[in-house]
Amino acid sequence: MAAVSVHKFADCVTCHAWSPDQSMIALCPNNDEVHIYRRSEEEKWERIHVLQKHDQIVSGIDWSSRSNKIVTVSHDRNSYVWNQETTEWVPTLVILRLNRAALCVQWSPKENKFAVGSGAKTVCVCYYEQENNWWVSKLIRKKHDSSVTSVAWHPNNIFLATTCTDGKCRVFSTFIKGVDTREAGSGPPDSKFGEQIVQLDLSFCWAFGVKWSPSGNTLAYVGHNSMIYFVDDVGPSPLAQSVAFRDLPLRDVLYLSERVVIGVGFDCNPMVFVADESGLWGFLRFLGERKAAASSAKSGSQFSEAFGKLYGQSRYGISNNSVQPSRLHGGIHENCINCIVPLNRKVGSKVTRFSTSGLDGRVVIWDLQNQEDLLDYL
């Protein structure tokens, strides 16, 4: 099995993040707290800190790998940056200037900025002002028509991709004078903060879980219509592919390499998508299964058959006593997977170990070193 360890920390886990050495994990047990656990010598997890500052559910956590800082966002419209001083974690309030919930957060590759998506149709790009000793934010406004569900930094530390419940994926420039420097390959030399580089209208439903490939040449995001989208040459003339699958929608994705993407969501089992040598993407299999998926033609007939059954049930009231999807596909999670995090976070490197958390309160660590059918793509 690809899953190497399973830990149940709570009845429900909203989000989680790992310390730089993976010896500690920070998670939200579906409330206004952040719990930090440390792995003991007996391979048991001990809760050592409880971060209490938010007033509502913590919706996003990210732990920086260089500076060892934790950033959290919440439905209370606030964000805090936590610094470890001796044995305590000290919070610093970030001025977001939001009138709706903060939904997601991610540190930039250089960790001199972080981005916050919100229900206010706004993205906050936050940076530290040394003179005033606080974190401030610049807002990308009037670009989104609904809630921003996820954010993802390009490896160049300038471009930021977002997904939104208006069904669109957008890429912005976040260049901040005095914080960023112009480097070769970091995008248009005259791009200004908040400038929209491209808008992708591939999905006609809610969009989630955008991620860049390790090289930054490709991005992927998912729609609530059981489709995943891959975009090459992000810019004025992007090249896009869409892959439809017959299972439940995804919520988040992760690039393991330029040719492997893992998707997680309502099917309670990670899905593996791979690209062939010509760059054509397709669904391979569920990670809990050893047998490869059927051909695309067969998948199409299965999709038609499934749609026919669904149509018949809704029209004639036919009941279906089939097992839950997680049991059908041999999944370890028993509820929706809402978060996937890499365990080796070096920019541009391949990923073979990652973790997932879900509404069942479990955090599962996956290792693909022994998955022979995936080694060729990694």
From TrEMBL:
Species this protein is from: Coffea canephora (Robusta coffee)
Name of the protein: Actin-related protein 2/3 complex subunit
One of this protein's GO BP terms?
Answer: Arp2/3 complex-mediated actin nucleation
Task: Give a single Pfam family match.
Answer: ANAPC4_WD40
* PROSITE patterns documented for this protein: WD_REPEATS_2, WD_REPEATS_REGION
**Which Gene Ontology cellular component annotation is one that this UniProt entry carries?**
Arp2/3 protein complex
Per its database record, what is this protein's job?
Answer: Functions as component of the Arp2/3 complex which is involved in regulation of actin polymerization and together with an activating nucleation-promoting factor (NPF) mediates the formation of branched actin networks.
Cellular compartments annotated: Cytoplasm, Cytoskeleton
Keywords annotated in UniProt: Actin-binding, Cytoplasm, Cytoskeleton, Repeat, WD repeat
Gene3D superfamilies per the UniProt record, alphabetical: YVTN repeat-like/Quinoprotein amine dehydrogenase (2.130.10.10)
**UniProt record similarity statement:** Belongs to the WD repeat ARPC1 family.
Whereabouts are the WD repeats? 51-92, 141-173
**Which SMART domains does the record cross-reference, listed alphabetically?**
WD40
Q: Which residues form the Anaphase-promoting complex subunit 4-like WD40 domain?
A: 17-107
Subunit structure, per the record? Component of the Arp2/3 complex composed of ARP2, ARP3, ARPC1/p41-ARC, ARPC2/p34-ARC, ARPC3/p21-ARC, ARPC4/p20-ARC and ARPC5/p16-ARC.
Q: From the Swiss-Prot or TrEMBL record, what is one GO molecular function term?
A: actin filament binding
